[in-house]
Design brief:
It is built from 4 helices and 11 strands. It has 170 residues and is an alpha+beta fold. The chain has 2 domains: 47 residues, no CATH class; 92 residues. A hairpin with a 6-residue loop joins strand 3 and strand 4. Helix 3 packs across helix 4. The chain starts with a strand and ends with a strand. The N terminus is likely disordered.
């Protein structure tokens, strides 16, 4: 059934681009908004006026785990960034300071974009960083290139798949 709206013709036909019509492809993004106001019991982020923030929730807020804490609990990162190269070993403290400072800044602005964990020793080998969002993953890679040079490979993944990025400088 085709109809016309203020924005032109509309249709109830299926999409042909592989995406589900009207649904998020990320299973951790809720199809329905949580009750308002809500507070995440793990990180204390609050959901109010349609978005997650670090604002103090109003009195009587219900408890609802945010998508970032769901990912952390399930051990399912949205993005992974591998750091490697001789430069990393020689400048481990500087690189990791940038990682932590960038994560702090992004986390304050975007509560659902956070560093989950770090594995590996930057002084001896590659380091794997896991994130709750692809934007934090890509943003940190770009920050490393801007600050230290090197190369970043960060192809955007298929919908619903985690981003796997790699920064290297020898």
């Amino acid at each position: 059934m085709n109809t016309t709206s203020a924005h032109g013709p509309t249709s109830h036909q299926p999409r042909h681009d592989g995406m589900e019509s009207g649904h998020h492809s990320d299973p951790y993004l809720e199809r329905r908004k949580p009750p308002e106001p809500s507070t995440c019991p793990d990180c204390q982020a609050s959901f109010h006026q349609g978005r997650w923030s670090w604002e103090t929730p109003p009195a009587g807020a219900s408890s609802h785990r945010c998508p970032a804490c769901e990912r952390i609990r399930d051990g399912m990162p949205a993005g992974e960034l591998t750091l490697s190269g001789a430069f990393l070993a020689a400048h481990a403290d500087e690189v990791m300071r940038l990682v932590n400072n960038t994560d702090d800044r992004v986390r304050m602005e975007h509560p659902l974009e956070r560093l989950i964990d770090t594995s590996g020793d930057p002084a001896t080998g590659p380091v794997l960083l896991r994130f709750t969002g692809i934007h934090a993953t890509h943003g940190l890679g770009k920050a490393l290139v801007k600050a230290f040079g090197g190369s970043l490979e960060a192809p955007y993944p298929e919908p619903g798949a985690p981003m796997r990025a790699h920064w290297q400088r020898d």
